[in-house]
Design brief:
The protein is mostly helical. The protein is built from 6 helices and 2 strands; from the N terminus they run H-H-H-H-H-H-E-E. The longest helix is centred in the middle third of the chain and has 36 residues. The chain is flat.
Length: 174
């Protein structure tokens, strides 16, 4: 195996490979703000779990403190991951789906996205239920705008998840 790696390195020096750049901006035309909503809802749930996590009292055993710290670290890591996932999904819709004609119909569109990005960053930076709920509300507003551009009405439905909340779903016009 080591000999093969050396041979490939030598080959790369003699005939360097050209850089290849690829990404998923085909565009495929398949966009949906649902994952951004789920990610935002997940940040709300992680804030709930953090708030509900009982802090070890005094005196607490080392095991109780370690268990608390491990759970808290996991909840925070998941909260931050989902806030970033929300930003990622919104950036795709913002950059790839929306066009100038959508901005003419919805002049506050850039402001909605800018606010969502800032709110998602705040959710990452803090344990802040209000910020997480505000992020979810902003993502829902973007989802509503998105579906309007596709000619669909939206229906708010309870998420039926442990943490509660609502999600927006498209309802085709009849």
């Amino acid at each position: 195996m080591r000999l093969a790696a050396l041979a490939f390195r030598l080959l790369d020096r003699v005939s360097p490979p050209r850089a290849a750049y690829a990404h998923c901006d085909i565009p495929c035309g398949i966009y949906d703000p649902h994952l951004a909503q789920i990610a935002a809802l997940s940040t709300v749930r992680m804030n709930q779990l953090i708030q509900e996590l009982p802090k070890p009292g005094s005196p607490a055993s080392a095991q109780e403190v370690e268990t608390y710290q491990a759970k808290l670290a996991r909840y925070i890591a998941v909260k931050e991951h989902h806030a970033e996932l929300c930003k990622h999904e919104l950036r795709i819709i913002w950059g790839d789906y929306f066009k100038p004609e959508h901005l003419q119909q919805h002049p506050d569109l850039h402001t909605q996205f800018w606010n969502a990005m800032k709110q998602a960053s705040k959710v990452r930076q803090e344990v802040n239920m209000a910020a997480a709920q505000e992020l979810l509300a902003t993502v829902q507003k973007i989802a509503e705008t998105f579906w309007k551009t596709k000619g669909a009405e939206v229906h708010r439905q309870p998420s039926l998840q442990t943490g509660g909340g609502e999600l927006l779903y498209p309802v085709p016009k009849r």
